[in-house]
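Checklist before submission:
- one chain only
- standard amino acids only
- sequence pasted in full

Submission:
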Amino acid sequence: MEQLIVVKIGGNIIDDDKKLASFITSFSAIPTKKILIHGGGKLATKLAIELGIEQQMIDGRRITDAETLKVVTMVYAGYINKNIVAQLQAHNCNAIGLSGADANLIAAVKRPMKNGVDYGFVGDVVAAPSVANWQLLLDNNFVPIIAPITHNNEGQLLNTNADTIAQEVAKALSSIYDVQLIYSFEKSGVLMDADDDDSIIKSITPHYYQALKEQKIIFAGMIPKLDNAFEALNCGVKKVVIGHAEKLTQLITGTAGTAITHDDDSNK
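Returned file contents:
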């Protein structure tokens, strides 16, 4: 099967013009079919506060009320998405900026209440993305740049976790492509010591992952990212790597970052 690389870019890289430019240079040079899914950085929170829209976070997850949804849609699917597209076009990369609502690429449902918390207009992906529409874009040499805004098939936009979108897209397209999923952000990989960027864990299997959680080495925001990574691996994605966005080329070649593997692929 033809190779496809799905890259998720997030963390502080989105907010740093220099680091983002470095990442875009590397991404544009990927010779195979590719998709970029981006997060929102801190700009949406900053703009919401400036507009007097109170922001509420529960366990690191944004409560998306109606006014916040307007802001994240403007920032994610507007400024950030088109800024990335414009920079990629400057590298002769034929990028097309879209959200999950465009071409019915990613449908979701409003997240139900959890532990008494109403997350507002937050979406959970419940159906596999439309493979035919994704393939149409890729086969016509477009490079999709996807903002983490989805829809519910009833006219309602939803704010959806970009890591989850990357996992769902990679899973769906693994039926027709040899998919590699890269989670890139400001850290060198999954770290043994969160304060030491050199303490990279080279590979993590399901059993090792469980042990790392029990030892509290992996916690908080890294857990959902790794849960997404293992879900993708278990559903047909050939390779999953987590690491620094400015080392994208090395992440793809397997010389940097943390590889997420099956138990029989590692000695860990």
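Reviewer check: The chain has a mean pLDDT of 93.
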